[in-house]
């Protein structure tokens, strides 16, 4: 192809070089026509006798002139048109070659730009992959931290719930033991009450110290028995009231335990739901902002759960202190009741032995 194009260029250049030679070939024809005209003019200078001959010769010369000149002009015009066509073809070929060279240069430039863009694209893909890997690593670390915190929190909640259940069971066991003891004491105290008369309503308003002073100041065994019966009835009613109060407190503690269990279950469900949402948002990189918001919400909920846990621990400690106070109070009250009962049962025996002052000791 390159050899053909070079041959065409050589031919076009040779045609351009031959263009003056063709014009040179046309010049003798013009000179011959002019020479014939000159000869006619010179011949007209000679003496001619016949005017018709002169006119005919002149007409012939004009006719020859008119014939020769247009023929030469047409040939010149056709040759010039051919030469112009060849020149146009040559210039068109040169323009095509220039355009081809320019397009090849443009193609090389575009290829270089395309290669640069491909290199940049590959680098961006690598950066995107590294960013995705870093993001997945951060998400896995965050999920591990959240799971660890949640596991620690759940373990603490379960341990606190276990301790609370053990405390409640101990309280129930102690309450049942106290109930059995009180029932036994009540049965023992009901036996002498059956033989006593009705108690005066005015004696119910007396305090325990007044009743004890009355026993100390009593002169007969019947008065001591009556005062002892009043004290036992007072103790029985007080125990009944305390039993009712204890049952109400136990029910309140059980309700608090149920509420704490329900809250723990609800928190576990919310934690599981948050984990599922975290997994779904991690699979979609468009939800990074939503994920960050969920992490913030989760942190806030964890803080709220820790505050609730601290409040529950504080409430648990206060309930433990209250329980210890009630135990101490009940133990002191039981000791006092036992002493009063022993005192009330020992007074008649002292009277049977003939002593008039039962509380000398």
Automatic annotation (TrEMBL):
Keyword Plastid: no
InterPro entries on file: MIPOL1 (IPR026175)
Coiled-coil features, chain-numbered ranges: 93-134, 250-329
UniProt keyword annotation of Protein transport present: no
Keywords: Coiled coil
Name this protein carries in UniProt: Mirror-image polydactyly 1 protein
Species of provenance: Ophiophagus hannah (King cobra)
Gene name, Swiss-Prot/TrEMBL: MIPOL1
